[in-house]
Amino acid sequence: MSNIRNILPKEIDDLSLLKGIANRDNRAILQLYKLHYPYVERMILNNNGSKDQAKDVFQEAVMVLYDKVTGQGFVLESKLKTFLYAVSRRLWLKQLSKKSNNHYSIEQDGLEESLDLNEDLELHEVQEQQFEKMESALRVLGEPCQSILTDFYFRNKSMQDICEKFGYTNTDNTKTQKYKCLQRLKKLFFSGNPHDA
Amino acid sequence: MGKWTLQEFLEKADRYLADELNIEERAEFDRFRVENPLFEEKFQQHQALISDMMQYKRRAEFKQSLNDVLVQNYQSKAVFRRMWNVLRINGVAAAVVAILSSLATLYSTGYFSTIKRTTSDYSALRREVNNVKRNVNAQHTAIKNINNSQSEQPDMHYGATGFLLNKNGYVVTNYHVVNGADSVHLQNRLGESYKADIIYKDMTKDLAILHINDGEFTPSRNIPYSFRRQNLDLGDDIFTIGYPRDEAVYGEGYLSSATGYAGDTLAYQISIPLNPGNSGGPVFDHYGNIIGIISGKQKGIDGAGFAIKTEALMNALKDIPEEVLRGGLELSEKNSMSSLSRTEQIKKLQDFIYIVKVY
């Protein structure tokens, strides 16, 4: 991508940024970072954090946003900046209190409004759990199963393509292979959950 | 309508979910699910799994993008910094000249030699017998013997520890212990003293190999310990016996780091109470295998002792020229203490550890 295309108009409204986030547009992500990261970094540096920790927290805050945006019935109730700042603040507080039993507080600096974030954070947590569960299931599943399933379901590749890519003799064999992979993934994924055993 | 196998059914389900079936096929699929509740359940599970997998992939790709953007951001900062450095270079050149000239002045006035002496925080652990006391004693003996011309034994300068490598009378201790020695004597716990010759010194490894050159020394028994060449793990318990005073002193602790002072890979950091006189003492693992040789500790830091690894000892032994050897240098390979209790181990091995007296 050329540098010229990276230059966005200076004033970009929250809604088009959100649309970019939902579509995984790198320019939108970069813009989000440029506009809203500095506040978060300052808040964390002022509260016993490092730059790396600030980056991690901001990254997770963006994931909370992503889960919210891609979730059902998304409405933005506040400014994007306020949202990201408030989420980062909550996440950082959580980390601080995890480190020690002391109750930490971050001094008020006028940037946060009282937002009800519980629902968003819960949604994010559920998503993150599912994510980790699937991640470990896929890791155990291994190759070539992982690639076969990804190619078929996520990249919408045809059985013919997959057959050629993985060197199976015919599409029937490939179908059987895909079926076996799927059954194994099902077992792995649901085995962690007693309700679906 | 024939029955489908599960595989066929799930293939249909994929096409159903992707909206690739025509109206008749859809109806047939729906009907089949209603008639076969078992398959309906499989369908629900399949749908959930696929949707979870898609969601996982979407989030994974988004995370990846997020990461990429952050990494790119780092890089652009780096470029910026590099440019700034270029602009600064003239200023830097001027500063370098200024610093060099001041350093030269400091060097010529001997400033750095003092600094080095005062800031080295490594202390070797040979026991230095107090200089003043020694001088006073020397005067006393001189006065006492003023009338008889008989000369007395010279006074001990340093005390440290050493131990037998094999039954042929080879003993290892530290280089810093015997460096500059006029003569070296080894004394066992029964008070019997043997004269020893220094046959090899290695300053960089801080090792010295001695050989007991004394008719009274009888290489009678086999050595009860062996030498462990593999590295120990952090936290393994270890012990040592040394002579920080004229009696043997037992100390135990654990391996605290895989490298020694300033990252020395041929040494361990150990956490054992160490005092001057412990230098050259053996470090044993739990089973009584020798894993190292105590060499020193770091000043001002609690529990930071250092031991030279057995590996360095092996290397040093290989470097010894053949002509100075007086009998085989093979190390004892058998450990006859591994199943004994600690006190039994100590009883067995303390006969093989000596006070090294340097005159």
TrEMBL record, chain A:
Belongs to the sigma-70 factor family. ECF subfamily. This is RNA polymerase sigma factor. Keywords: DNA-binding, Sigma factor, Transcription, Transcription regulation. The keyword DNA-binding applies. The keyword DNA-binding applies. SUPFAM superfamilies: Sigma2 domain of RNA polymerase sigma factors (SSF88946), Sigma3 and sigma4 domains of RNA polymerase sigma factors (SSF88659). InterPro entries: RNA_pol_sigma-70-like (IPR039425), RNA_pol_sigma-70_dom (IPR014284), RNA_pol_sigma_r2 (IPR013325), RNA_pol_sigma_r3/r4-like (IPR013324), WH-like_DNA-bd_sf (IPR036388).
From TrEMBL, chain B:
It comes from the Bacteria. Keywords: Membrane, Transmembrane, Transmembrane helix. Pfam families: Trypsin_2. The chain crosses the membrane at residues 86-107. PANTHER family: PROTEASE DO-LIKE 5, CHLOROPLASTIC, SERINE ENDOPROTEASE DEGS. This is Trypsin-like peptidase domain-containing protein. It comes from Sphingobacterium populi.
